[in-house]
Amino acid sequence: MPTTNHQSQDLDRSLVSSKQPSKQSIASIEQPSNPAKLADFKVGVDTVIFSVDTVQHRLLVLLVMRHQAPFTDYWSLPGTLVREGESLEDAADRVLTEKIRVNNLYLEQLFTFGGPNRDPRESEAAYNVRYLSVSHFALVRFEDTALIADGVSGIAWYPLDRVPQLAFDHNQILTYGYQRLRSKLEYSPVAFDVLPEMFTLGDVYQLYATVLGEDFADYSNFRTRLLKLRVLKDTGIKTSRGAGRPASLYQFDAEAFEPLKDKPMVFL
Amino acid sequence: MPTTNHQSQDLDRSLVSSKQPSKQSIASIEQPSNPAKLADFKVGVDTVIFSVDTVQHRLLVLLVMRHQAPFTDYWSLPGTLVREGESLEDAADRVLTEKIRVNNLYLEQLFTFGGPNRDPRESEAAYNVRYLSVSHFALVRFEDTALIADGVSGIAWYPLDRVPQLAFDHNQILTYGYQRLRSKLEYSPVAFDVLPEMFTLGDVYQLYATVLGEDFADYSNFRTRLLKLRVLKDTGIKTSRGAGRPASLYQFDAEAFEPLKDKPMVFL
DNA sequence: GCAAAAGTGTTCCGACTACACCCATGC
DNA sequence: GCATGGGTGTAGTCGGAACACTTTTGC
């Protein structure tokens, strides 16, 4: 038996794959003849949707209230089952458009949870169907996002630190999504997908500070590093928001970023 | 409609999700009543298995020859379909143990490809079953790995730069796996999962140089940085391999690494 | 001795930190 | 004026790149 080292997989997999040995022995080498019984799956897409409330300096995650079994009256991540002819990506988009109206977003696949017994429906069902979840994470612009309240199902933004016990293994997925969000911010320009077309350097700083916590560089040095990347264009336009000196509005220059795309670099 | 930016997803998804609009309109909000027709899936696990031939300085990937339709006589990534009661992880382990005998390895989930029409069998089948692939990538110790030739099916290590046209979308998966391997090497100590218990700093250097190419730091600086991390223990034992001064044998100190685990750091 | 590989040290330079300080606005 | 936030500059320090140099082996 090989010694599998899953140590870089940061999730606690204990709940996910209960590691029960498969009924078939490995002696039955896969051949056209005598194939072992294959599992049948329904595939779900669950999405961790983040947004940043820069006014209140809070990182929010979108939750929906369940009204059916299993886990009735639990909050959960927005999700759906994949339909015929629909790609995973389409399904993820569909969840988003059903729950919110948003113009700008960043969406990426996270991880696939597929161990047996992660969904109670598996045991209920007469026929042996498994439920698999292809989780995604998304970042949307808070100010530009309207929740679609369909009257019945609850839907709400939760501050990350006040998220309750969720249905299924959704707390795990959320934790994983948060980690991914942090590293995405540090290593790629996701932030600009979620900022307005024009923004001040202060806006960018607020976003980073809210997501990454207060434990990173001060505003002054953040500015310098950001500008040194030469991917922001100063429009020259000034904006005044209450007290203080008016700030320049900048634009993200996608073309200037192009050559840096694959280079190892730090954005923060 | 939201503007989805998938730009950080480096794969060319064109082959994967053919982006055909789902038959159901988004107007039919998901409700307990009138659910849209759900797709039924078989779930496959395909694994990009890398190993490093430090003698010949080559990065190798394990391929198997297909003997059934579809894609008969094409090389492909080792894979299998998930059986009843088997977790994704178990299935990935099973593929590994069926194809090779190995003692040390690193295994991690990569990405899930699930668009419709990625598998020709979908159209053949009378009933509408979709095939989804949860891809993994693995790194194994080359010197410690024996291929299991079962007489019939071809199985071989291919140098990465000589990989032919593969079945399905496996070339894409391979490309993605290679990227992941590179970043794993840089940001985590995967290398030590695949090196012998004791190794010289030259061994580590060879491994890094082979995977990352010749375009990185010289041996001298590599040494210095690696030792500064204080995660390698000098056993004091010297080893002589042909000409040149004998090298010290080192051991990876997992406990010393523990506190660094979650810290952002560069290993290279 | 010479080649080859291991291992050490040193110099240079760029980047990041931590500030101090100036600028432009609202009140 | 003063508070507030924007923006610039600088001195100290840390770390990586480049490369010279020493050490210990095989032949």
How would you portray this structure in words?
Two copies of one chain form a homodimer. The first copy, chain A, has 268 residues and is α+β, with helices and mostly antiparallel strands. Chain A is 24% helix and 28% strand. Chain A has helices at 88-99, 121-124, 170-187, 191-194, 201-212, 219-228, 254-257; strands spanning 3-5, 40-53, 58-65, 75-76, 79-81, 100-101, 104-113, 129-140, 146-147, 155-159, 232-239, 247-252. In chain A, a hairpin with a 4-residue loop joins strand 2 and strand 3. The longest helix of chain A is centred in the middle third of the chain and has 18 residues, at 170-187. Chain A is elongated and about 65 Å long. The relative contact order of chain A is 0.15. Chains A and B meet through strand 1, strand 2, helix 1, strand 7 and strand 8 of A and strand 1, strand 2, helix 1, strand 7 and strand 8 of B. Strand 7 of chain A pairs parallel with strand 1 (3-5) of chain B, so a sheet runs across the interface. The structure holds a DNA duplex (27 and 27 nucleotides).
